[in-house]
Task: structure prediction
Amino acid sequence: MLIEVRGAGVGTANKGAELMLRAVARQRDAWGGGVELAIHPNKGPYRQRAQLGLYQKLWLGRLGALGNPVTGLVPRRVRQTFGLVTEDEIQGVLDASGFAYSDQWGPRASEHLARMAARWRSRGTPVVLLPQALGPFRDPRGREAFRRALDGVDLVFARDRISLEHVRELGPVRARIEQAPDFTVAMPGTLPPGYEPRPRQVAVVPNLRMVDKGTAEVRDRYVGVLAECVRHLRARGYEPFILVHDPTSDFAISETLRQQVGGELRVESHDDPGHLKGILGECHAVIGSRFHALVSSLAQAVPSLAMGWSHKYEMLFEEFGAGECVVKATDPTAAVLAQLDRLLEGPERERVIGALRENGVAMRQKTVRMWADVAGVLGIRPAAAAAAA
Result:
């Protein structure tokens, strides 16, 4: 069975997106040799797609549906030799957009999904939206588009209870609506060759989205609050460092932070998102604004302090039983540092670690059930549908 993996949330430039793509590829392997994955060629360099064993979809975007006959002119034998597939060969679709269908990103992604979903339904192609943040849909254009999209989709997983509420507010739709956690929680982390963890290291993970999606007050305070956290950690004998989780966006804001604290701050960046997760797992604590960096930390029971720009951060920490660990860049600096102190040592730190461990197990179990539901919709036979541990 040939399945297309699509959406703004998958690719190889953003390391959170690549982690999601790798999670889908890992599940493909668990399903067995009868399942193959295809991806659009704009989702990263060929070398990285090839490492994951992904076919490349032939797609002439500007021609839309008219492009199918053109791509079909490429002989099948040639396509197989070069790992190319056509739209007509796709037998199922997994959408892993992460957080694209929302007023915060505008209606275009929802409108494109609606057009594609209508085509998939007309062809009888099963479609699943993997766990992702959804909504709100207050903008009439985006609301109408996403509602139309759900009439062409078979199964939708909201990643949190607020996303679930946003979808249900749209009214009756054809799609079955469920809730499941972020599906990267079970992905393993591995340390880079030669990397030596330090016993009191604390990762700081900046996010450009805090600046370009936040309010004017957040833009003015965000880097300064992170700088105060760095100074506070140093004063208490910890070793803060910057971890760049999205090399396409976050190097500039990371350099701004580094300069604010005097320029002497280690910066870690790795091509392999598994290495990033491995490093986060070896930290004493994490201060972060990149969503999947925080998923990686919490899933490994590393106490973390989050500053986010959407509801997905609060919901992630709520599900892990650590809702009090989400702060705002606009909070008084003293309050942010006090919460950070509670995560560094003492009974609150131990309570948080226990909650992360317990809820992490539950979330991995929910992910196993989610993949079983996906297999059922796609028509993958049950014997081959055991999820990756």
Remarks:
- Residues 347-378 form the longest helix (32 residues).
- The longest strand covers residues 127-132.
